[in-house]
Every structure is written in structure tokens, then in C-alpha cells.
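Protocol step 4 of 5: obtain the predicted structure for the target chain.
Materials: sequence only (see below). No template structures provided, no constraints applied. The aim of this step is simply to have a reference model before the mutagenesis design in step 5. Sequence pasted as it appears in the construct record:
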Amino acid sequence: MHLRYSYRIYPTMGQRASLARTFGCARVVYNDALAVRKEARKAGRPYPKSTGLQKVVITAAKKTPERAWLASVGVDPLIQSLRDLDTAYRNFFDSVSGKRQGRPVGLPRFKSKRDVRQSLRFTRNGFRIRGNGKLNLAKIGDVRVKWSRPLPADPSSVTIVLDPSGRYYASFVVDVEPEHLPEVDAEVGIDLGLTTYAVLSTGEVIDNPRFLRKAEKRLKAAQRELSRKAKGSKNRAKARAKVARAHAKVADTRMDWLHKQTTRIIRETQAVYLEDLNVRGLARGRLAKSVHDAGWSTFRRLLEEKAARYGRTVGIVHRAFPSSQLCSQCGHRDGPKPLAVREWACSACGVLHDRDLNAARNILAAGQADRLNAPGGPVRPGVAIPRQARPVERGTRLGDQRTTGDRAAGAGGIPAR
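Step 4 output (C-alpha cells):
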């Protein structure tokens, strides 16, 4: 399975200028190739292939006065930008044909030099890790890397990212084998919410940290300062960076908390069952800010990815399942209840239920029933089958070559600590 390992890098001023030049060249090559394909489609000509585009927008363009500066950067990021365009078109066609699930994907669009996030990718031919721990990039030089942990294997590619707050990162793609944890007997159902972030069927309650709400005062002050700056001025650019750093701090804190919670749950339980929430729909309502602050989709994604890596199971119960209406003791359906009702007594057996705990227990029972009784298909409509989480490769093009080296700490010339 493919994993990404991201590290903070600290390029010098000269290296930052070289990276900015490479960002711009990769963007120009992408836009030129997109323009050629749009013109070909408009004229009714055959669809240009990647090899032909490479000869036109890179090889031949370097010989023209208008694009002669393309020769000042490494060719590897330019070729990868064309492959990114191929991926964008492939995603669009798969979405139109129904092969790609999820929200519809539109046609590729031209990139802007004003985008606050820039990235470029190097394959094995464009980078290497020095023995002293520095990252050597073609026509950029040796960049200092903050190795927070050793790579488990030799990387197949690296993506250099400049985020809106001005930080540089190196994101390595490595191919590792799943590390199955020892099996345990515990299984848990989880009911997600806003008042409390999650209630587990075991009775454990995870409080909602509300990172965005706690940082709103600081964010508002930074945004007010930005609104007072003249457009196009250097002070406005500094104020924009300050706002971006404030938002990055909130996002990093939330992601760190989600990683810790999901790792603990995966290590302690053999199977996890969740409800398939309509996050996009909830994010359009009056609770949109709180829904976005909770990060339910990220929570589910991290659980699925870690389950695939460590040999656990993640089950998703359909959103139509009435988890809040059923009595977890006798199974009686007591009907819908307003959100203000946090406790209720079953009209059939008289048991007093906490709303969230009862829902978590119902989610656990529904997930276990379908996992045990219907391994090949659902036994009743409205409940999805819990499944073994699939290996996930995010942000990596499918054409990357897989590494074949043995897994070892400190691989790739990185000092093991």
C-alpha cells in the first residue's frame, strides 16, 4: 500500500527563488497543454496524446523566444504537470461515465499564478536523499529537511508543497506492507455529534474540542487587520500571510487531535461501525460552521486508512437506519424525536435511554448483524455492509512505480533516530 510521509523543509532564499521559478514553469506547461487540447477539441481534431503534448509544450517550446526560460528548470516537474493534466481528464471522463463514484468532476481549468497553494512533483530521476539527510532536487540543490521520523522505505516520488502560510513541505510516497496488529475481541459503534464529538457504544464520551470556535477571536482580529490594508500593497500581503498562519494553526491542531483519536480507537478495537452522515447536506445549514469545525469526513477517512494498514474492519451503516428511534434493549421503534430530546424512555419496555449512547449501541448491533449474516450482500435495505477497509493511496498518481526494496528504518540515507 502507498503511504505519504510529509516533512517540513527549509530552502534558502536562492532555493526559494528557484522553486518559485519551477512552480511558474510547471503551471505554464500545464496551461499550454490544456489550451492545445481545448483547441483540438474545438476544431474537431483527434485528442492529443501526452507524448505529442510533451514535444510541443516542452521540447519545442524551449527553442522559442517566448518559452526559452523553460530550460532553466528541471524537466521532471514539467513532465509530471502533463501527467496531472491526464489525471484530471481521466477523472472527468470517469465521472461522466459513472465509473468514478462521488460528487461530479468537471473539466480541467487553467491554473492561476495567484493560487495560494503551489506544488510540483519529482520522480526518482529528479531527486535523491543525500547521506547527510539533505534532499537534492534537480536544478534546485540540497534542501535542508526536518526529519521528524525515518522513512520506512525508499520513496518513489516527492511532492514539494508551498502552503498559503508560506511553509514548505516535502511529501514522500513510499510503498509499505500492511502492519496487522494483534486481534482483539472489542468492537465498537460510534455516534458522531456536535454537543459531544463522539459517543461510543462502550459508554465512552469524546468531548468536542471546537478548535475553530476557540480561535475565532484571534481569526477575526487578523481578518479585520487584513481588510484595512490597501489592495496590492506589501502590507496587505503580510496581513494575508498572518491570516493564513492563524488558519493553519487551527487546521494543524485539529488534524493532530483527529490522528490521536483515530489511532487509539483502531488499536483498541477490532471493528468500528459508523453512521453514513450526510456531511455535505449538514454543511449547508445553520450549523455549517460547527459541522466544518468537527471534521467528521476526515475522522472517517483516517479510520478507514488506518484500518486498512493495521488489519482492522470499518463498517458503515446507511444514513436511513433509524438509530435514534430504536430501543437498544427490546428493538421497539419509538418514532422520531426532536434534537432537544436527549433522554427518552422506551414505551414498550420502559428502559431510560441516553439518546447518543442508545444510537451508538444500535449502530454497533446493525453493523455486527450485517457483518455476520450477510458477507456477500445486504440482508435488508437501508443498512450497508461493514467491509474490510481498502488500501488507500491519496494524492499519488497511479503511474508511480512501486519500490521493491526491503522495509528498514533509516532507508534512503535518512539518519534513524
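Step 4 remarks: Residues 376-417 have pLDDT under 50 and may be disordered. The longest helix spans residues 234-268.
Proceed to step 5.
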